[in-house]
Amino acid sequence: MATAAVLALAAGLCLGARPPVRVDSRDGERVLGNGLVELRLGADGTLAGLSRAGGQNLLANGGRGYWNGASALATQSHGYVALGGPGRVVRQSGDLAEVAFRHEPHGRWPREVFPFEAHLHYVLRRGESGFYLFTTIAYRPDMQAARFAQFAYNLRLDPRRFTTIAVDDRRRHRSHTPEEEKQAEKVMDATFRLADGRVVTKYDYCHDIELDDYHVYGWASEREGVWLIQPSAEYYPCTPFKRFLSAHQTATTPVIIWQPHCTHAGGAEVVCRRGESWRKLYGPLFFHVNAARGSDALWADARRRHAELAELWPYAWMTHDDFPVERGEVTGRLVFDDAAPARDAHVVLAPIGAHWSADVRGYHFWSRTDADGRFAIPHVRAGTHTLFAAGADQFREFVHRNVVVEAGQTRALGTLTWKPETRGRRIWQIGVADRTTGEFRNGDDYRHWGLWRRFPVQFPRGVRFIIGKSTERADWNFAHWNWHCAEPAWAIEFRMDERPKGSATLTCGIAAALPHDPRRKTHTHRGTTDVRVSVNGREVGRIALPSSGGVGYRSARHSTKYAVAEIPFDAALLRAGRNTIALRHAHSDAYKAGDPMGERGAGPGYVMYDAIRLEIAAPQPARTPPR
User: Fold this and answer.
1) Cα separation of 5 and 96, whole Å?
2) Architecture of domain 2-312
3) Is residue 588 scored above 60 in pLDDT?
4) CA–CA separation, 77 and 550 (whole Å)
5) Is the omega angle on the peptide bond into residue 240 within 30 degrees of 0, that is, cis?
6) Which residues contact 242 (CB under 8 A, 6 or more apart)?
7) Using an 8 Å Cβ cutoff, are 116 and 216 in contact?
8) What is the pLDDT of residues 520-535, one digit of tens each?
């Protein structure tokens, strides 16, 4: 916190030499400028122009900045419309200008389609090459019952200028053009097969919040760049295991998307009922506008700017009631009941009364434990939170309630003990229980449409995993599709020295699930999965789960929703020597490489296993009857 104060003071001293911020009215627009960048704002909050130091409009040729949302009254289906409303100058000085646009529900069409009160704020500061953006959404007790599924701010850039997309170090390259996408074959929503055979989709550029790669993304030309920078993701719902859109190409313009709320990949709607009150602030984020020679230098500068802004978070210049600048910190050490450290666990603080993966109304804060199990969560809003820990090879989470955080204070929790749930002696395990499928085949290269097309090439005889010989990276696919090659069942083979006695349990952590429709030979969001589990040919149970959201066809390797399936069976079904546990979809369709049904659409149903563990508990001694 002291470092942030020093940087803020130094920045303030430097700002005095910069031109002051100005707000003018011109041709029905508000024009904000600071000598480095200029914004032209329409009467409804649309960003009509963005330029550097009096240069050309970076939003020319079809570009603009606007916000939209998908919402409805409780009795209606969702509508997806652009939002807007009257604007006003909230603050204005030589150091800062803040302009807000208010969207009110139940006004003229299309405002009734988003029945919440929302404010979009633009902030321009002296000496900064870019602008800040944040929004608030509120529901009052006198409003009609309503819900919303998503909202976003979209910044569309000049397609003749911006050619290189960058969302992280791996996904940074020259993009296809709007004209190429316009002429492409559509194979799924927002997914196109170009003339050269490549399939491109906006979902390949999503950010997985838990990977901590969401902070910087945008577009570059050879000399200029526009980048979205966000030091924190505290306002995103269902985090940290949540994904959101970032930047992508379209048939008209390149676009940068700030999507602070959506229901994709296992998210949830915000649902408000008449008589209750709710409000939330999303942001602020920063749109950085820079100049340099070449996209590499532009990207490096954007990363440098993020590092500076991260040191200043939470921003001292924010004066909104819903954005406390003074925060607290939570520290501690997480160990198992045998005193071993709980390494690499996600430690999450979420509002009381809700599980972090389902909460959409509050703010979340998190960190990861180090090799010694220690964690520190900075910049936590004051209040009472529930602490969760997930991962560390555990199927069940750790929960510690009533963590009270005070502004300006560090809440030291000391050592917390996590008692693992076991079902006996571990015989073997496939994967690591960490809520993802990253350790499996394709789990580290999943940002592609149509990964089911790889399966018949990589596993032409199906999946046969031999404990002690096979490896997760090579021999276990990240998704168990409802399409199969030669063998529909996935086989796990292992040896036992002797025939066991007692109770056996097969525990399956499920990172994502999507049912299958055998009539249409494709996935469905209705019903449940139906994976039959057998031991040496004897069926012992099934994995029946509802849809956890569409992730397999949208370039993802896990859902926000997680499930654990336990299959108990008599250990006597196992034998000395070789044993086989098989996982088989009750409905699976034959599929081969190049099959037309895999070249279009959203593919089959699936189950994505996080980890699978076999344990055996010794038989309980018989009780001696009382005399």
Assistant:
1) 18
2) Distorted Sandwich (2.70)
3) yes
4) 20
5) yes
6) 208, 209, 210, 236, 265, 266, 267, 560
7) no
8) 999 999 999 999 999 9
Q: How far is CA 403 from CA 225, 335, 387, in A?
A: 42, 18, 7
Contact 320/100 with Cβ under 8 angstroms? no
What CATH fold (topology level) applies to the domain 425-617? Answer: Jelly Rolls (2.60.120)
Which superfamily does 328-418 belong to?
Answer: Immunoglobulins (2.60.40.10)
- Return the amino acid letter for 222: E
Say how far apart CA 9 and CA 318 lie, in whole Å: 15
Residue with tokens 């969401």: 214
Between CA 493 and CA 496 the distance in angstroms is: 10
Phi-psi region of 26 (alpha: psi -120 to 50; beta: other; left: phi over 0): beta
Confidence at residue 499, expressed as pLDDT on a 0 to 100 scale: 97
* pLDDT reported for residue 105: 66
Return the structure tokens found at 609: 């296993």
Contact 50, 38 (CB under 8 A): yes
Structure tokens at 161: 């200028």
**Cα 232 from Cα 4, distance rounded (Å):** 15
Distance CA 478, CA 486 (A): 18
Tell me how far CA of residue 223 lies from CA of 304, 336, 404, in angstroms: 17, 53, 49
> How far apart (Å, rounded) are the C-alpha atoms in residues 618 and 427?
12
**H/E/C letters for each residue in 35-46?**
CCEEEEECCCCC
Mean of pLDDT values over 79-85: 65
Altogether, the residues listed in the chain come to a count of 627
The confidence score (pLDDT) of residue 70 equals: 77
Count Cβ atoms below 10 Å from residue 149 Cβ, excluding itself.
18
Q: What token pair was written down for 323?
A: 């954005």
Looking at beta carbons, which pairs linking 17-20 to residues 24 or more positions away fall under 8 Å?
17/127, 18/126, 18/127, 19/126, 20/93, 20/94, 20/95, 20/126
Q: How far is CA 408 from the centre of its chain?
A: 29
User: pTM above 0.90?
Assistant: yes
- Do the beta carbons of residue 72 and residue 115 sit within 8 Å? yes
Going by pLDDT thresholds of 50, 70 and 90, the confidence category of residue 13 is very low
Distance from C-alpha of 418 to C-alpha of 301, rounded to nearest angstrom? 42
Using only the alpha carbons of the chain, give its radius of gyration: 27
Contacts of 74 (CB under 8 A, 6+ apart): 144, 145, 146, 147, 271, 273
Residue 151: burial class (beta carbons within 10 Å; 0-12, 13-18, 19+): buried
- Encode pLDDT of 24-71 as tens digits: 998 889 999 999 999 999 999 999 999 998 799 999 999 999 998 877
List the structure tokens of 462.
Answer: 């199906």
> H-helix or E-strand containing 308?
helix 295-312
Domain ranges of the chain: 2-312, 328-418, 425-617
Predicted confidence at residue 17, as pLDDT, reads: 78
* CA–CA distance, 441 with 311 (Å, rounded to integer): 38
pLDDT, residue 104, reads 72
pLDDT in tens, 596-622: 999 999 999 999 999 999 999 999 877
Instruction: Tell me which residue of 88, 450, 596 sits closest to 442, measured CA to CA.
Output: 450
Residue 566 CB burial class (10 angstroms; 0-12, 13-18, ≥19): middle
Phi and psi torsions of 527, nearest 5°: 70, -155
